[in-house]
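Onboarding guide, step 5: your first structure request.
Type a short instruction followed by the sequence, for example:

Predict the 3D structure of this protein.
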Amino acid sequence: MAAATPTDGERVTLERDGHVLLIGVNRPEKRNAFDLAVLRQLAAAYERLADDDELRVGVLHAHGEHFSAGLDLAEVGPVVAERGPASLTGGGRFDPFGVWGEPVPKPVVMAVQGIALTLSIELALACDIVVAAADVRFRQLEIARGIMPFGGATFRAPARLGWGNAMRFLLTAEEFGAEEARRIGLVQEVVAVGRQKDRAVELARLVAAQAPLGVQGTLANAGAARKAAERAAVEHLRELLPAILGSQDAAEGVRSFVERRGARFTGR
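The system replies with structure tokens like these:
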């Protein structure tokens, strides 16, 4: 395996392990909160995975104790409000969330640990296999911040996890752990803390050992069915979001986040 050497400006590291590309979110000093640089570099990593014929599978992981605290709202929030939710794509040809742009045409295995908020869940729903460390703490916090999820959770979670299972975490913003995530199908395996990345690589190597055309064809056919089912929901979300992102409650959500206090919502 070619080891990555992170640099100060390197928000996403890349390691090559034979036919597997390891993609590591690298902002641990901020609990891997996704700023614009993370989004851009993640999109570039997915493009590399797609374009390199020798790469067959991606492994998405994060450096440090936590997967991600979610979006860096202070930086990304205003951009999304101004330019729309497609800002999440990072401007690449392939959208890591597979919502506002085309999904990467090769499988991605995700390893998740520690705090895994908001977009962490949406990335898990976009990936093909998810391995969680036993200490993972999932939480879909958008409604507690005056907005709503816009990376796929609103339609993928009910479809894949069951309506009640999805609404329990979408509408309450409650935290849930690894075993609950496995029970509802958000993750496929739970492993000891520190083992999640290694296990994800093991699974990726197993996928990479199969016939590439068959693997990519299987993924494409399954993806075609999902895309057809999701199309109307994505368009509805596109129409719905501007008013919510521009609401007084959304502004209050950002203020309360920055000021580290509970939000006081008014429904306006």
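Each response can be followed by summary notes, for example: The longest helix spans residues 212-245.
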